Amino acid sequence: MAIGVTNAPERSKSSGSIINDPQVRGIFYQAITVIILAVLIYWIVDNTIENLRRANIASGYGFLSSRAGFDVGQSLISFSSDSTYGRALVVGFVNTLLVAITGIITATVIGFIVGIGRLSHNWIIAKLSLAYVEVFRNIPPLLVIFFWYSGVLSILPQARDALALPFDMYVSNRGLAFPRPIPGEGSLYTLLAFLIAVAASFLVARYARQKQMATGQRFPVLWTALGLIIGLPLVTFLATGAPLTFDVPVAGKFNLTGGSVVGPEFMSLFLALSFYTAAFIAEIVRAGIRGVSKGQSEAAHALGIRPRLTTRLVIVPQAMRIIIPPLTSQYLNLTKNSSLAVAVGYADLVAVGGTILNQTGQSIEVVSIWLIVYLSLSLATSLFMNWYNARMALVER
Amino acid sequence: MARRILTALVGAAVMGIGAHAASAATLDDVKAKGFVQCGVNTGLAGFAAPDASGNWSGFDVDYCKAIAAAVFGDATKVKYTPTSAKERFPALQSGEVDVLARNTTWTINRDTALGFNFRAVNYYDGQGFMVRKGLNVKSALELSGAAVCVQTGTTTELNLADYFKTNNLQYNPVVFEKLEEVNAAYDAGRCDVYTTDQSGLYSLRLTLSKPDEHMILPEIISKEPLGPAVRQGDDQWFDIVSWVHYALINAEDFGITQANVEEMKKSPNPDIQRFLGVEADTKIGTDLGLTNEWAVNVIKAVGNYGEVFDRNIGAGSPLKIERGLNALWSKGGIQYAPPVR
């Protein structure tokens, strides 16, 4: 108190007492918060360890390197019951990534189409888009997943009466079976040609931009790039003697054997997440386009820019600035919603982790792995989208 | 950010282990709260399933009732926690349930690393396969290439992998977390084969849309001793749960039934007198922490082991499972109880 009084004359703004000094108060409250938090954390950790010890439950992450003993239905990397728990988690993680990435791409495409459709002058297209958004936005994602799953299971034929499609593809309630390409000797050249074509396309695009800047003349970049990317690998492929064979699915006793199969679990989850998230993305896209003031397009028209170019060069770049931040949240939501996979038996990180949790009883360890993986995945998505957002931001001169 | 992760982690830790520490004296806790919290299956006809008005019945449920009868002399003082295969162990570890009577296999891993205790085996089971009759499969060895429906986190899942690997057969596992989901998928033709404990297959077949079109293959590929589990570190409670089972077996041995238990109290047989707590100065129940009438209460509540079996899963039920290994040792089975002495 005494110090506060002596200091009072120096602190012109404070009313005299240290208790009323906003800076001191701020520090005091923050210190209290930190102490409470620290005590709370200590108490929880200590309690957990004590409880585990008392319940005689083994803990630690050592179990990750022991033999899993179970099989996983869908796996992009090789996995058998002899693999480790750690590898099983990787299988689950890859499956989560697969459904998240394919889902994000499809949801974005559908979302943009529907979002633009809602602004269409065509009454039917606008109303259809509206109906789509309202239906999918207002149903819980889990129900959408069940809808697709039971739809796939009950409408498609039984495995032994699989429906034959062109190119040796078959569809049944066990999924879509298609021939798996097996690259032979010399396929490396085709891949190399493809990479060279992609790199060349970039150079062409840069050259075209410089040329337009300098002379105003435009260069058909799209057609050149397409020709390069398709043509060059194709020529190489034929020149090296078409080194590619196919593993074709054939009807076995129970299922189709051979080839690759996309199971109904993946299909229903992928479709559900795409359609569900697309409804939200459509609204974001619509808001973004609406958010660009009318004066912009009017000014472009006044300058004599054609409508299609106006959309591409004036409206969309400005709309993107509004669209990207909420789009990021939708991508994160889709990734997190993919954990609903457990309901239809798709082997994502949560489903595989759940199996491990139950086989080993290491609940805290598995839950902590889940948290860390989803957190990292979300943060990585955020980082990427923030980078993209910065790139798309209006450059002020 | 590091702090946020840590907080999240710790939060998970709390969720994983439950907010309150599991106290050592379960019997005192149970008496204090006035009921037994019993972990059961979410719905397996014959073992544990709720009826339309929410009343639970079944083989495992009768064990819950029997434990409540032993502790309180009142079989209604029990509350049920339906648990999936995945939820059951954390529920018991955290103290959310006092005993897990949920057709759970006794394994060394569960007995040690998971921190549980098993002793009484109330049902000797083994894993089997169910297929559609139309597939013309006569043996599990013909199943190569099949899609197999299985519930996740079970010993079944592990036995399945081992069996197919040992016999060099290919298969495609279709894994679900909940029993109802496995049923629906098998019924819809998502898989060719359904595998779980054979008792479970009999029960599940009844729930399919056309039970007659399905058959259970003869192979039994594993040992599945099912029994009630408790947490380690509480021998008194462990003894009570074990001896409730032994009381049911001994009752069948002595020919004591739900109907004649009062009469049997007057039996001159000293073994029966001791068992039913009518011997002078007996401590047969008080040593367990119960009343001397405990065995009488158990039998009054659910009958003897044979009655419990017949009523829920045996001849007197739609499941019609034969006693087989679960007959008394004196009748060709392996159900055997230590003497009450």
Automatic annotation (TrEMBL), chain A:
Listed transmembrane segments: 27-45, 88-114, 135-156, 188-208, 220-246, 266-285, 339-357, 369-388
Any one biological process term the GO annotation gives: amino acid transport
UniProt xrefs under CDD domains: TM_PBP2 (cd06261)
Membrane topology type: Multi-pass membrane protein
Origin organism lineage: Bacteria, Pseudomonadati, Pseudomonadota, Alphaproteobacteria, Hyphomicrobiales
Location(s), subcellular: Cell inner membrane; Cell membrane
Name this protein carries in UniProt: General L-amino acid ABC transporter membrane protein /amino acid ABC transporter membrane protein 1 (PAAT family)
Organism superkingdom: Bacteria
One Gene Ontology cellular component annotation held by this UniProt entry: ATP-binding cassette (ABC) transporter complex
Keyword Nuclease attributed: no
Family per record: Belongs to the binding-protein-dependent transport system permease family. HisMQ subfamily.
Gene3D superfamilies on file: MetI-like
MF-aspect GO terms: transmembrane transporter activity
Entry keyword set: Amino-acid transport, Cell membrane, Membrane, Transmembrane, Transmembrane helix, Transport
InterPro entries hit by this protein: AA_ABC_transptr_permease_3TM, ArtM/GltK/GlnP/TcyL/YhdX-like, MetI-like, MetI-like_sf
A family per Pfam: BPD_transp_1
ABC transmembrane type-1 domain segment(s): 93-385
Chief place where the protein resides: membrane
Species: Sinorhizobium americanum
UniProtKB/TrEMBL annotation, chain B:
Pfam families, alphabetized: SBP_bac_3
Gene Ontology BP annotations: amino acid transport
Cellular localisation: Periplasm
Claim: Lyase is one of the keywords in the record: no
Gene Ontology cellular-component annotations: outer membrane-bounded periplasmic space
InterPro entries linked: Bact_solute-bind_prot3, Lys_Arg_Orn-bd, Solute-binding_3/MltF_N
Keyword Translocase tagged: no
Gene3D superfamilies registered for this protein in UniProt: Periplasmic binding protein-like II (3.40.190.10)
SUPFAM superfamilies, per the entry: Periplasmic binding protein-like II (SSF53850)
Keywords carried by this UniProt record: Periplasm, Signal, Transport
Predominant localisation class: periplasm
PANTHER family named in the record: AMINO ACID ABC TRANSPORTER PERMEASE, AMINO-ACID ABC TRANSPORTER-BINDING PROTEIN YHDW-RELATED
Family statement: Belongs to the bacterial solute-binding protein 3 family.
Record protein name field: General L-amino acid-binding protein
